[in-house]
Write a structure and sequence with these properties.
By secondary structure, this protein is mainly beta. About 5% of the residues lie in helices and about 40% in strands. It contains three helices and 44 strands. The strands form ten sheets. Strands 2, 5, 6, 8, 13, 14, 15 and 17 form an eight-stranded antiparallel β-sheet that branches. It has a seven-stranded antiparallel β-sheet with strand order 3-7-16-9-10-11-12, with no helix packed on it. Strands 21-22-24-29-26-27 form a six-stranded mixed β-sheet, with no helix packed on it. A hairpin with an 8-residue loop joins β9 and β10.
Length: about 600
């Protein structure tokens, strides 16, 4: 998937709004319905719209009356299905450094759109030479698939073509957060500065917005763009676990609730029910200031474990696993206890955990049937209280042995394939069909992390599928966005990419078509508060397949990650005519001896 850097892009634009200077960066509420411009005009140079990169040779987007939402006109944004980069990309600069804002854009993708993508991009840093450009959001609609994706960490969601759809972003620069909505249904929620992966975390500003045609073979239509400051309202969590939207702080307090923060919305807030024994929660969990109960100074001393203030949770766990309970980083001297009954510590207790100063952390094996479990956080002494973030992390099983895999030639803790993150870039060679076992570590609380770069050299176009499994949730697998140049100067993000799901629930899979060139495949932990040390759930497996996307292990009929006895039983249970059955591995229309041999030949861990 392309990024704008290095592309020949387009101009468009038009805006009528309430900025102090119509041609300058937007600094306050703004709107543009494209109704005041001359029909058919290229809007670059009108109402503050500019060429991307200030390039006068770039293509222009135009005002149209072919498809409109309100008023007589809208904006049409075209793509370039040839992939040469001759697609529309008008630019509107902003100069917003604080506050909570709603950016709403109405978009129409025709029903007969057959190929390509259309959408828009928001940047927190921008200059015409793009030496400081930094993405915060990239909203991409794939018309043929009927999907929308808020890259670079959002999931793919259905998108209704043939109708006007509102895409709204609530941008909270005060708390570094953005929520993305499609027709008021949330599709992404994350840090505003979390758009890129290459070590540049961005800044809490809004600098530019550009609709972008990408490789679409269709016209995308835009209308009724608005940018408005959000009043001091937010979501309010009530004691019964329900949520009250668009509440003020006084309204929330009157209702007996907890205010989730200015600019928050119930769609993006998790509310918990308060029982007589504590807050009802399920692991895994992050409990922080968004809940409104992340400061024990606001609590009372209900438990008798000590004389200090405390807070309790009633915890259920979904699976028999080892779990981490951590308040590492708390602003006070803590004691964290887990018991089989309220206000007890018979299962586990931690005072000063290694690496956490005076804060607490412990690991414990728990069973789903053994709960609920009762967790208590309190201060060590009578006057100890303060702010905290509680994390309950489910640890995955370790990867099973795979004799087919190559070992990443980098001892964990060293940096021998850190790619463009190294002073002298170094890469591990990878070829189509390779399976690598590697490790990716991470330091705690925004520290450094290991990034592994694999170099793929293609001499002809190829469809490439990257598949990743990891012992840690959220490990990132993807492609560096150089366009195959092999030049670190072009590396600004990981796109496309996918992340591993908790405990092998689903592999991270990326499929894309690449032109001849030098490409870099990327694997790393996401940034996070807790460390992932070398010897503790840092392992991953990366598979690179070339050619049409196929199941790399069709014999694993139960999707367990191994070809084993249950897969053999599935073949035997469906023996005989069975056209289209997954057990018909050779596609003959019958489940028979050849399919049985295929299972036996691939017995063991899947590649």
């Amino acid at each position: 998937m392309k990024r704008l850097t290095g592309l020949s892009v387009i101009a468009l634009a038009a805006t009528t709004g309430t900025t102090a200077l119509a041609g300058g960066p937007i600094t306050t509420d703004w709107s543009d319905g494209f109704d005041t411009y001359e029909l058919g005009v290229d809007i670059v140079g009108i109402g503050g719209w500019e060429h991307w990169a200030d390039d006068p040779e770039s293509f222009g987007a135009r005002v149209t009356d072919a498809t409109v939402r309100s008023g007589p006109q809208a904006l049409v944004v075209t793509g370039d299905p040839s992939g040469a980069g001759d697609n529309d990309a008008p630019l509107r600069q902003f100069a917003i450094t604080e506050g909570i804002w709603d950016l709403a854009i109405w978009q129409f993708i025709p029903e007969d759109a057959s190929f390509g993508r259309n959408g828009f991009i928001l940047l927190n840093q921008y200059d015409h030479g793009c030496t400081t450009c930094n993405w915060s959001a990239q909203i991409v609609v794939d018309a043929a698939a009927g999907t929308i994706e808020s890259q670079f960490k959002g999931e793919i969601h259905p998108y209704p073509v043939g109708q006007w759809n509102q895409i709204r972003l609530r941008i909270n620069l005060d708390s570094d957060h953005v929520d993305v909505f499609l027709n008021d249904e949330i599709i992404d929620s994350r840090l505003w500065t979390d758009g890129n992966f290459l070590g540049n975390p961005g800044i809490t500003e809004l600098a530019a917005m550009t609709p972008f045609g990408w490789d679409a073979d269709f016209n995308g239509y835009y209308d009724d763009m608005t940018f408005e400051r959000v009043p001091p309202i937010g979501g309010c969590c009530l004691p019964d676990g329900t949520c009250l939207d668009d509440a003020g702080t006084d309204d929330c307090e009157t209702a007996g609730g907890v205010f989730a923060g200015f600019g928050s919305s119930c769609a993006a807030v998790t509310c918990y029910e308060l029982s007589a024994d504590g807050w009802l929660v399920e692991a895994p969990l992050v409990w922080d200031a968004v809940t409104g109960h992340a400061d024990t100074c606001d609590e009372t001393g209900d438990c008798d474990l000590s004389s200090s203030n405390d807070i309790q949770w009633v915890v259920t766990v979904p699976r028999d696993r080892e779990y981490i309970f951590s308040v590492c980083g708390a602003a006070f001297d803590t004691v964290l206890a887990l018991g089989s009954t309220p206000c007890t510590d018979d299962i586990a207790v931690s005072d000063d955990a290694l690496g956490c100063g005076t804060a607490s952390e412990f690991r414990v094996e728990l069973t789903a049937d053994g709960g609920p479990y009762y967790l208590t956080l309190e201060g060590f002494g009578g006057g100890d209280c303060g702010e905290f973030t509680l994390q309950i992390i489910e640890l995955c099983p370790l990867l099973s042995d795979n004799p087919k895999a190559l070992d990443e030639p980098e001892p964990c803790g060293d940096d021998e394939n850190g790619g463009c993150n190294m002073a002298v870039p170094m890469f591990t060679a990878i070829e189509c069909g390779d399976v690598y076992r590697g490790t990716a570590w991470r330091e705690a609380s925004g520290g450094t992390r290991d990034t592994d770069w694999y170099e793929l050299i293609l001499t002809e176009p190829a469809e490439v599928t990257i598949t990743g499994q990891s012992e840690s949730d959220g490990t990132v697998f993807g492609l560096v966005n150089t366009g195959g140049s092999g030049n670190c100067a072009d590396a600004t993000a990981i796109t496309p990419f996918a992340t591993s799901q908790p405990c092998f629930e689903a592999a991270a899979t990326v499929t894309t078509t690449l032109e001849p060139g030098t490409w870099w495949v990327f694997a790393a932990q996401p940034f996070g508060d807790l460390a992932v040390p070398c010897d503790d759930h840092a392992g991953y497996e990366l598979t690179l397949a070339c050619g049409p996307s196929v199941d790399p292990c069709p014999e694993d009929l139960d999707d367990s990650g191994d070809v084993g006895f249950s897969d053999l039983l599935a073949v035997l249970a469906n023996w005989g005519p069975c056209p289209g059955c997954p057990e018909d591995l050779d596609g003959s229309g019958d489940v028979g001896f050849a399919d049985l041999l295929s299972v036996l030949a691939n017995w063991g861990p899947c590649p």
